[in-house]
Write a structure and sequence with these properties.
mainly alpha; 6 strands; 50% helix; globular; two-stranded antiparallel ribbon; two-stranded antiparallel sheet
Amino acid sequence: MDAPPPKENIRPFIKITEHLAKLGYSVPQIFAKDIDAGFLLLEDFGDETFTKALTAKVDEMQLYQSAIDVLINLHSRELSEVIPDGVKNYDHNTLLAEVVLFVDWYIPGLFGDTYTEYVKNDFLCIWDKLLSEVSSENETLVLRDFHADNLMWLPSRDGIRKCGLLDYQDAVKGSPAYDIASLFEDARRDLKPGMASDLLYYYFTALPKVDRRRFNKIYAILSAQRHCKVIGIFARLAIRDGKRNYLKHINRCWRLLERVSSSPELKVLDDWLNANIPVNKRTGQIVT
């Protein structure tokens, strides 16, 4: 890893890597480090991400069950064991600040700067209320970008170590539903029909104390939050940084957002989307 300061800081990566290794998960071993230079010599997991393993016809259920096994193990531990010192809270204000990217970048990309502050404020009021439903109870370590491109298939290892972890340096303390939503509601690929439901049942069976109804409600809210955030991020990458290749994923993000916002818990969001963004505008065709 070559991440020189001042633009990069390898300390969070080192901290979370050492913590996850202590808990028994497959993370790259750190052989040597020069913190001042921002340089690490790391174990090479190879190049078989879940995405590449799927292309090579590795069984999809086998892969995703190995990832859920990691989360079951993590979520079954006491909070004091899984949260290292200094990890930030994935709290109400942080989640709200992320979702505002949708109206700060994507909406202007569609309609220019003509949309009113009222529209933005209405959107934020909706999300302020929705996110108040995401309580701080039953929190865990949230790896945050837990999806197929950041998971490595290591079949020669045993148990939970078959699933290698990457890109966890921004880990936070938050809801256990978040990483599951990140895994199942992937901006880049669709899961086989019915597989997410089967794996959720597998997860609940392993953790029988979980309030399923409450979990499913929070899962829906955080899924929609993530989709709005990601659409906003992809728009920002295109408009601000000229990285238009991310726009190709927005159609899928919209499809996922529409599906989850159709749930009763998110009717108020669905109504806002229908009132402000016509279906034919829900694309990556934004002005950059």
